[in-house]
Predict the 3D structure of the following.
Amino acid sequence: MAEKGAAATQTARESVSVKESVPVKAPVAPNESNDLIERFNKAYEEIANRAFGIFENDGRIMGRDLEHWFKAETELFHPVHINVAEAEGTVTVQAEVPGFEVKDLEVTLEPQRLTISGKRETKEETKQGKTVYNEQCSNEIFRAVPLPTEVDASKATATLRNGVLELQAPKSARATAGSVQVKIA
């Protein structure tokens, strides 16, 4: 029995050291900034619809709309905790994205804003005799972060390791756009 625990521990340690690169893109067309507004509007509509559904199920009790709104937000979106650090020549952003893989994430870097979005879905089906159990789960994240200073997106790097996305971008006196490949750490 001790051998099984040791093997499981070894496997967990091996997976910890895996670094994976995550692509970071910079908007190249002016209409791509409108995409951000569209995404905010879509998120707002989804939250409003869910909040109204909660209101309906709550017996249409007035005065609890803020509570319904926050409950709808937590059901639809998972928080992305962010840490932004500014060093002498670099801006570093760490974002907690547990359970997400590189293929699930979209990272966009503009000179003064970082946008992280992601969606993952899991489906599980279990058959026991004639009974079939289906479970589906969908997680979505979205976070737009203003940066403390302009950065050079073309020289930025991003890695994903143990559910933490880390982006490093050099400070720039001039705003430039570019793509960055994020790697698994």
